[in-house]
């Protein structure tokens, strides 16, 4: 097996026409099984994603095996061809809207997941702000659209024929599409504000959604990202979480 990526608590290998994701002993078994279950449930929607092949133990460690897709990530392509960035962003938004047009009624609910994440910030975020975040979340409309949870260009592989394949469904839920858009906007903003603004403008135009509606989700998704405690992000995220009435 050849190592193709190393992540926190997991290593991703290629073996022939398969990808094998092997998790560390510290990774909760329930999260691994949930990731595989998410993948299987999203497969049933007919979206272009790698096929799940197996969940197994390899040398005493849990592993998920799925199809290998030959190609480049959309992130790589955008970096290599910046002159056509608008075209790639257009394709990116169209693909996200295709995802959000689907339903997977057995997935976990986005609101439930967000509430748990906000509650877990005890000691990290002031109780008053957590209360305001819970209140805002509870007031947002309930939807049941398929939400990827980490939709960004690095999670889209363009194969050698130009077809997209969406990977990494470990955070998938059913819920409000604008929450998923807010998360994508946040992920872009952490790296490139200009790209983030291009994305949000295009998403709102294509989905006929008011920017203000997506922005109402920003403190909530910033709080959920803060849970990950990624070095270098904390100050930026806290500045968004603190803005209870985001403008």
Q: What's this entry about, in short?
A:
Helices cover 45% and strands 19% of the residues.
Overall description:
The protein is globular. The mean pLDDT is 93. The protein has a five-stranded antiparallel β-sheet, with helices on one face. It has a three-stranded antiparallel β-sheet with strand order 6-8-9. A two-stranded antiparallel sheet has the order 7-10. The relative contact order is 0.13. The longest helix has 16 residues, at 85-100. The protein is an alpha+beta fold. Helix 3 crosses helix 7. The protein is built from ten helices and ten strands.
Task: Describe the structure using short key phrases.
247 residues, alpha+beta, 5-stranded antiparallel beta sheet, 10 helices, 45% helix, 19% strand
SSE arrangement:
Elements: E1 2-7, E2 10-15, E3 18-23, H1 29-43, E4 52-58, E5 61-67, E6 71-73, H2 74-80, H3 85-100, H4 110-119, H5 127-139, E7 145-147, E8 156-159, E9 164-166, E10 173-175, H6 177-189, H7 193-207, H8 211-215, H9 218-226, H10 234-241
Antiparallel strand pairs: 1-2, 2-3, 3-5, 4-5, 6-8, 7-10, 8-9
């Amino acid at each position: 097996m050849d190592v193709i990526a190393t992540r926190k608590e997991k290593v991703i290998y290629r073996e022939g026409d398969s990808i094998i994701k092997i998790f560390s002993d510290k990774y909760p078994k329930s999260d691994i099984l949930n990731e595989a279950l998410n993948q299987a449930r999203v497969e049933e929607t007919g979206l272009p994603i790698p096929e799940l092949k197996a969940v197994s133990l390899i040398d005493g460690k849990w592993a998920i095996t799925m199809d290998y897709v030959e190609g480049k990530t959309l992130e790589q392509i955008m970096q290599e061809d910046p002159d056509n960035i608008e075209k790639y962003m257009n394709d990116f938004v169209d693909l996200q809207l295709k995802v959000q047009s689907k339903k997977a009624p057995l997935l976990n609910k986005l609101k439930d997941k967000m509430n748990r994440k906000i509650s877990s910030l005890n000691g990290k975020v002031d109780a008053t702000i957590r209360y305001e975040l819970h209140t805002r979340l509870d007031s947002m409309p309930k939807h049941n659209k398929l939400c990827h949870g980490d939709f960004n260009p690095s999670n889209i592989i363009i194969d050698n024929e130009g077809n997209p394949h969406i990977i990494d469904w470990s955070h998938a839920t059913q819920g409000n599409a604008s929450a998923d858009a807010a998360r994508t906007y946040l992920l872009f903003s952490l790296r490139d504000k200009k790209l983030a603004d291009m994305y949000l403008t295009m998403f709102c135009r294509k989905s006929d959604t008011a920017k203000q509606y997506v922005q109402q989700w920003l403190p909530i998704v910033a709080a959920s990202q803060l849970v990950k405690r990624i070095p270098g992000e904390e100050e930026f995220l806290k500045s968004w979480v603190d803005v209870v009435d985001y403008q």
